[in-house]
TrEMBL record:
Group of enzyme by EC: transferase
Residue ranges constituting the Glycosyltransferase 2-like domain according to the UniProt record: 13-165
EC number assigned by the record: 2.4.-.-
Name recorded for this polypeptide: Glycosyltransferase
InterPro entries in the record: Glyco_trans_2-like, Glycosyltransferase_2, Nucleotide-diphossugar_trans
Length: 339
């Protein structure tokens, strides 16, 4: 990579923070040392421990987002800040700022729109066994539902191109925002890469904001919502299959009794089974229709993504004319063709 081009890039380091006064100053100083040309933005999300002041004294540009939740912060950061490259990390000191340059080099070398810094040793350093188990479970579930493009969907250390950031329709409110980023890349088949990095423990005095059961439920709900929005045929087809199975299970005893006696004494059960089978057909029909709608939405998202200027890679692709390969400009001919 050309060092001069690297120095001329507009790089923004984005650090969403909530009560990280114990670590944010060291994180800001680390990124200032790793990427001297980058602008470092700390978005304070209603901290009560002096996070904003510590970040400001360390040299970061501090802004606030009043709506609580990491998703709200990321949506605000992506909308407000204009840059060529965006590096997002956490302010808790678990990600090494010195790895940022390697993330940049990987993105430019691989010519991708997002590089995810997968966490080496995350299961050993997750802090609580519930978090480690949940991380394995949700990554496995993601690969089954949305594809095998990612091995660590919860990593908060990522780098994006401007084209990804400005075309990403962030709708999440909390920690599930990273999952939404991964699904966005998977549904549009965007070029992405992963880079395995060390993952550290929180230092003394820094407390995790994650809740094993609350955030796990929110992530499951996000999985279901994204499945419904991106793969409606599979989602509603599964619902239809469950309804059909329930309808048959209720109808079998009634049918056996009818064959043996010629009577249908349990009419409410028979009606319930017919209703479930009818709902199954309705769900399947909805899945077929919404699948066409989802394909249309994906096309619009893809067109919006392609409409973003690709100055980062196009500048590297176009080489200046040389004496051996001059640029020939064809002038319009006179006559009717020019007219």
């Amino acid at each position: 990579m050309d060092d001069a081009a690297f120095c001329n890039m507009r790089i923004a380091v984005l650090l969403p923070c909530y009560n990280e006064a114990a670590t944010i100053a060291a994180v800001v100083r680390g990124f200032r040392a790793a990427l001297p040309q980058a602008r470092i933005f700390v978005y304070d999300n209603n901290s009560t421990d002096g996070t904003a002041l510590a970040a400001m004294l360390a040299g970061a540009e501090v802004r606030r987002e009043r709506r609580q939740g990491k998703g709200h912060v990321v949506r605000r950061m992506f909308a407000d800040i204009d840059a060529d490259l965006y590096i997002m990390a956490d302010g808790d000191g678990t990600y090494a700022p010195q790895d940022a340059e390697e993330l940049v080099r990987t993105l430019l070398t691989e010519r991708v729109d997002m590089v995810v810094g997968t966490r080496r040793g995350v299961h050993a350093n997750a802090g609580r066994q519930g978090h480690a188990f949940g991380n394995r479970l949700f990554n496995l579930l993601y690969r089954r539902l949305f594809g095998t493009g990612f091995t660590d969907i919860f990593s908060g250390y990522r780098i994006f191109t401007r084209r990804f950031v400005k075309s990403f329709p962030a709708i999440s409110a909390g920690f599930e925002i990273e999952t939404e980023m991964s699904v966005h890349a998977s549904r549009l088949n965007l070029p992405v890469a992963e880079l395995e990095l060390d993952y550290g423990r929180r230092p003394e005095g820094s407390v995790s904001k994650l809740s094993t059961f609350r955030d796990g439920f929110r992530i499951l709900r996000m999985f279901a919502m994204l499945m419904k929005e991106t793969r409606p045929f599979a989602f509603f087809g599964f619902v239809a299959l469950c309804l059909l199975a329930a309808g048959f299970s209720f109808s079998v005893p009634v049918l056996i009794e009818y064959v043996e006696t010629g009577l249908v004494p349990r009419m409410p059960t028979w009606m319930l089974s017919l209703m479930l089978v009818s709902l199954s057909s309705v769900s399947l029909t909805a899945g077929i229709i919404l699948d066409s709608v989802a394909r249309g939405r994906n096309e619009l998202l893809r067109l919006n993504y392609l409409a973003q200027p690709d100055q980062l890679f196009s500048a590297q692709s176009v080489s200046p004319p040389s004496a051996d390969h001059p640029v020939i400009v064809e002038r319009p001919r006179s006559g009717s063709a020019a007219a």
